[in-house]
Amino acid sequence: QVHLVESGGGVVQPGRSLRLSCAASGFTFSSYGIYWVRQAPGKGLEWVAVIWYHGTIKYYSDFVKGRFTISRDNSKNTVYLQMNSLRAEDTAVYHCARGASPSVDLDYWGHGTLVSVSS
Amino acid sequence: NFMLTQPHSVSESPGKTITISCSRSSGIIANHYVHWYRQRPGSAPASVIFENNQRPSGVPDRFSGSIDSSSNSASLTISGLKTEDEADYYCQSYDSSNHYVFGSGTKVTVL
Question: Does residue B87 surpass a pLDDT of 80?
Answer without folding.
Answer: yes
